[in-house]
């Protein structure tokens, strides 16, 4: 009997196969004496669409809402069906005894495997490979210490509830608000509260009324100082006449240093990176988008084997990693990091503190750090070098001494008016030698208490209060991670402190999704909500746009993952929430309207009730061929008719074309169609080809060339 290993991606599968000695290349998998290694391509399985449950849902109508299936069902994703079929065959192979789940060690990775396993009706025992890096050593160690798959049941239930609840909210709320306001309005559990953050900030900016104020600054020769009110500590002067009087009062006069307050400030090294902190820093340093940083980090993890698992929310290491820390430093000693590594390795003992190692703050994965593998950084792309540099420098910094400086406030008195100067003096640069930043404060003035000073000049500066800054990606990621500050409930605030809006792995995709659907645009580095996005937040109930909802859901999902909450109890609350959402959308009275093209006269149902077919089904001769999102299909599919034509089959894609409605209609009604502008994959030349409808050997329907330039296309080629 053989062990079947299922990885999440082909690249990871090849690494595992190499270590297991699986050299036999087969279609969709690699085989050895004891192991078969195959792969998913991300998600191979998805939840049913509403129309899969009942064709009445094909029509978007308030009358069919809410959509609450008794059981959420699964189906293969058409574009990757071939690989799914390979996995299904392998899972059912009598020679396979045990299945090893080797998808990414996290909630989504668990879901990818379990959905495949479930849809294939597999009952074979499962072992779990749980690792945080893809180095050969880490994979070998993980394979020696496989976990029982049942130990991750709670994690799967949490992932399943997340998937199903997001489907229910997205499908029902999107349809309800789209039908109500007659414009496509996509709604999401995580997407909508994120949009609300941007909209609320934009409203603050738009409603902001600037106010003039003045500041009085004096030049005391060796240093500058600013006037302040000793009672309010405020430096702003709202009355310009008062400012002029103060300037005339002190100009050319003599004062004295009334007070010098000095305090020692100790700044600990920053914590290690989790994904969100890495994305923020990369955005500030290099202007990288959150999604871009994630992709670069993923390449450093999978392709380069240079860093540990990047999709983590922890900024700490576990105790069992202490023994490998010096080895990581040794690997990075050569080249540009030699000075830092040599210093740390010269220490009698590496200073490991609770700010670095804390098992209680490591859940699925530890912080992002370099792996044990010795890598050639010069072979990295510029982007990879930049992200790796951030991770390496932060890894060194946590072991460096504190940054220590004296902070001083000098109070200078002139004609009973007080002026303050702030400055600092570095005592120990410590970790700042690695992460140099511009000094924000000048050095401490070289003065003593009681010293007399002359006013060499006084300047009254007119200024204006400034509105809040619009969010850039770094700021938005911080707001999403620390969304708890926007809610009142302390318990939920604490949960949001840990989970925030979304997860480190999904926040970048959420931002990109908001841009994709037209709710947000990029203006330089800033993220600005569009009028459509602004209007959407005005019309949805606060329960849907508030971070509080995400906090409640994340708390429940975490409890499910820990085995502390019944998944059915959670889903029942979600269903009740969906009923509320649909009712609220139906009953809500608002003047909000969206600009859109005029529809033909008639009611919503009159427009939508009749779905035009493109012809009689050539397979069963009774049904009508309808246009779906991804294919053309017979409406008698529930009665067993298998007719379908995919819009994007592989052969069409090869010739740079898609199955259009016009071509499909000609095939159905005439049996053949002329496809213009096909591009030869060999020569790159365009040609017109005639294709004919036919039943394929697989039992499905498709097409084949009947006439074309033989030098440009093969007459024998067929497509589904």
TrEMBL record:
It is an enzyme of class 5 (isomerase). GO terms for biological process: DNA recombination; DNA repair; DNA topological change. GO terms for molecular function: DNA binding; DNA topoisomerase type I (single strand cut, ATP-independent) activity; metal ion binding. InterPro entries: Topo_IA (IPR000380), Topo_IA_2 (IPR003601), Topo_IA_AS (IPR023406), Topo_IA_cen (IPR013497), Topo_IA_cen_sub1 (IPR013824), Topo_IA_cen_sub2 (IPR013825), Topo_IA_cen_sub3 (IPR013826), Topo_IA_core_domain (IPR023405). It holds the Pfam family Toprim. Residues 152-582 form the Topo IA-type catalytic domain. It comes from the Bacteria. It catalyses: ATP-independent breakage of single-stranded DNA, followed by passage and rejoining. PROSITE patterns: TOPO_IA_1, TOPO_IA_2, TOPRIM. Its EC number is 5.6.2.1. Residues 2-135 form the Toprim domain. Belongs to the type IA topoisomerase family. This is DNA topoisomerase. It comes from Thermotalea metallivorans.
């Amino acid at each position: 009997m053989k062990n079947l290993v299922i990885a999440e991606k082909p690249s990871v599968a090849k690494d595992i196969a190499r270590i297991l000695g699986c050299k036999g290349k087969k279609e969709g998998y690699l085989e050895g004496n004891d192991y078969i290694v195959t792969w998913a391509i991300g998600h191979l399985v998805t939840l049913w669409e509403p129309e899969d449950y009942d064709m009445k849902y094909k029509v978007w109508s308030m009358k069919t809402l809410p959509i609450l299936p008794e059981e959420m069902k699964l189906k293969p994703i058409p574009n990757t069906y071939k690989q799914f079929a390979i996995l299904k065959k392998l899972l059912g192979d009598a020679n396979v005894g045990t299945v090893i789940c080797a998808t990414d060690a996290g909630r989504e990775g668990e879901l990818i495997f379990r959905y495949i396993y479930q849809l294939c009706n597999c009952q074979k025992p499962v072992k779990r490979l749980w690792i945080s890096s893809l180095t050969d050593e880490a994979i070998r160690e993980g394979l020696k210490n496989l976990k029982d798959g049942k130990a991750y049941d709670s994690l799967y239930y949490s992932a399943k509830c997340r998937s199903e609840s997001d489907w229910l909210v997205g499908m029902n709320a999107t349809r309800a608000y789209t039908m109500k306001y007659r414009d496509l309005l996509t709604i999401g559990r995580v997407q909508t509260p994120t949009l609300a953050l941007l909209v609320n900030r934009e409203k603050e900016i738009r409603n902001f009324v600037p106010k003039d104020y003045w500041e009085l600054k004096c030049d005391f020769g060796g240093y500058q100082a600013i006037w302040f009110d000793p009672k309010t500590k405020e430096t702003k002067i709202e009355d310009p006449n008062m400012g002029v009087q103060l300037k005339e009062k002190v100009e050319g006069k003599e004062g004295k240093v009334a007070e010098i307050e000095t305090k020692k400030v100790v700044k600990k090294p920053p914590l290690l990176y989790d994904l969100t902190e890495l994305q923020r820093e990369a955005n500030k340093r290099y202007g990288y988008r959150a999604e871009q940083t994630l992709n670069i980090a993923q390449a450093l993890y999978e392709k380069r084997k240079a860093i540990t698992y990047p999709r983590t929310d922890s900024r700490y290491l576990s105790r069992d990693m202490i023994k490998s820390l010096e080895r990581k430093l040794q690997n990075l000693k050569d080249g540009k990091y030699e000075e830092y590594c040599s210093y740390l390795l010269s220490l009698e003992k590496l200073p490991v503190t609770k700010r670095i190692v804390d098992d209680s703050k490591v859940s699925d994965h530890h912080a992002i750090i370099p792996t044990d593998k010795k890598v050639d950084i010069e072979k990295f792309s510029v982007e990879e070098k930049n992200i790796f540099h951030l991770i390496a420098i932060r890894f060194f910094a946590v072991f460096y001494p504190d940054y220590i400086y004296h902070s001083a406030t000098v109070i200078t008195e002139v004609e009973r008016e007080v002026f303050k100067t702030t400055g600092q003096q570095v005592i120990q640069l410590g970790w700042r030698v690695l992460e140099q930043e511009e000094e924000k404060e000048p050095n401490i003035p070289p003065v003593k208490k009681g010293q007399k000073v002359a006013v060499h000049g006084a300047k009254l500066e007119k200024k204006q209060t400034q509105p809040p800054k619009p969010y850039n990606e770094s700021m938005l990621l911080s707001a999403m991670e620390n969304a708890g500050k926007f809610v009142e409930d302390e318990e939920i605030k604490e949960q949001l402190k840990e989970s925030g809006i979304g997860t480190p792995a999904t926040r970048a995709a959420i931002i990109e999704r908001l841009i994709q659907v037209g709710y947000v645009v990029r203006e330089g580095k800033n993220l600005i909500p569009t009028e459509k996005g602004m209007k959407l937040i005005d019309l949805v109930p606060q329960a849907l746009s508030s971070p509080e909802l995400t906090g409640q859901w994340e708390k429940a999902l975490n409890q499910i993952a820990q085995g502390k909450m019944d998944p059915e109890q959670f889903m029942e609350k979600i269903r009740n929430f969906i009923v509320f959402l649909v009712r609220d959308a139906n009953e809500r009275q608002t003047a909000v309207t969206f600009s859109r093209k005029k529809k033909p006269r008639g009611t919503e149902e009159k427009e939508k009730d009749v779905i035009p077919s493109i012809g009689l089904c050539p397979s069963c001769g009774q049904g009508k061929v309808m246009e779906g999102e991804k294919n053309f299909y017979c409406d008698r599919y529930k009665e067993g008719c298998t007719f379908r034509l995919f819009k994007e089959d592989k052969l069409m894609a090869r010739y740079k074309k898609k199955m259009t409605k016009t071509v499909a209609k000609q095939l159905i009604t005439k049996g053949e169609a002329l496809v213009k502008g096909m591009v030869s994959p060999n020569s790159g030349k365009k040609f017109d080809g005639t294709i004919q409808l036919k039943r394929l050997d697989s039992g499905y329907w498709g097409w084949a060339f009947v006439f074309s330039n033989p030098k440009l296309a093969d007459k024998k080629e067929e497509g589904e």
